[in-house]
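Posting for a labmate who doesn't have an account.
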Amino acid sequence: MRKKEEKKMQEQLNDPKLQLYKSMKIALRSTATVGQNPELDSARKSMFLLVGTVLQGGASLLNKSKPIEIHPLELMALAKEVYDTKEVLLKTDEDSLPTLLANIFYVFTGSANIKSDFFPMSYNNNHEHVVLSLLWQTTPSAPKDFALYEVYKSDEKYIEELNLRLVYQLTKAFVLMDNEYFYHSYDKCNDYLHYMESNKDVISKTPMINMVDQGFGPSEQSYYQFHGMGLIIRALDESKMKKEKESLDDMELFLEDMQKGGLDNELTWLVDAYVHIKKEEYDKAIPALEKLQKSDKISAPEKQAITELLVFIKGRKKDSALNMFNDKLAFGKIAFHLMTERLNASKQMTDLGKSNEGKKLVEVQKEMNDKMQYFDSAKNNLNADSLSSKAKNLLKDVFK
C-alpha cells in the first residue's frame, strides 16, 4: 500500500499545474542570484513577462459577455513560451537557491542574510517549505497539490527549534492525511508520537502554544494537547486503513490527552460521541452530540445530521448511527478543519504578520495563489467558438 501511495504521489507531484507553480517559485527565488546564470536569468524574465501579459488582459478574458479577441497563433506562441520557460526553470533545484524570505530580505536590504527577531537564525529551506505548506493548507481556494509539494520537499529533522519541529511534523501528517496518503500519514504520526514521548520532559519545559488560552509558554498541558493531535490523526488514518480496534484505542487515548490538556471543544465532543456509539454506550454519547448541536462552528447540514443521529442513538441503532458519522458528518474533515485552525493560530504563524518580511512572505503566497487561480479561470473561459479547435486543445493542455 505504501508503494501504491508513493506511485500516486509522484503522479500528483508531476501535474502540469504544479510544475507551473514550481517554475514561478524558482523564478522568485532566483532574484538574489541574478547575474550568476544567464540561462536562468532569461527564463526568469520570461516567466514574469508571461504572467504579466496574461494578467494584463484578464478582465476581458474573464468577462464571458464580451467576445474574446485572441488569435490561435497567439495562443500557440503563449503555449510555447510557457513550455520553454518552464523546462529551463525546472532544471534548477529550487533548494539550491536562497529561500523566498532571503530574497525578500535581499530586495529590502541588498543582502540575502536573514536578520530578524521573528525568524530563527537557522531559517532554511525546511522551515520555509513547511510554513508555505501550512499557508497553502489553510487557504480554502488553494490546490491541495501545493501543500503536498511543500511537505514533500521538507525534512523537519534539520530544524533545531523544538516547538517548530513539532508543529512541522504535525503539519506534514495533516497534509498527507488530507491528500489521502493514509499509510504515509500514519508513519509520520508514529515518528511524531515517538519523538514526543521520548522527549516529554524537555517538551513540557519548552515554550509552546497553549490551545486553551492561545498563550505561549512552557506547559505540560501543551504537551498533552500536541500529543493528542498526533493520536487523533493516527486514529483517522487507522480508520481508513480498516484498523478499527487500533483506531478506537487511539481515540480513547486522544480523549484522555485532551482531558489532561484542558481542551473541551467540537473535536473532543465529536470523538467522544463516536467512541461511545462504537462501544454501544448510547446514553453517554448524547451530551456530546447536544453540545455539537449548539455549536456555532458546525454548519447547518451537519447540525441536521446530528439531529438525525440522535434519533438513531435513542433507538439504539448502532450501525445506522456509525453510517451517519461516515456519510454526513465528514468526521475527518471536521477534525482537520478544527486542528488546522488551532495550528494557524500558533505563535509561529502569528509571528509572520509582525514583521515587514513576514507580511511580504504571506503576500507572495497569496499573489501566487491568485495567479494560479487566474490561470484556471482563463483555461475555462477561453474555450470560445471564435477559437479554432487546435488552439483550444493546446491551451487546455498548457493550463490543465
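Reply:
Got it, the C-alpha cells are right above this. Residues 54-70, 379-400 have pLDDT under 50 and may be disordered.
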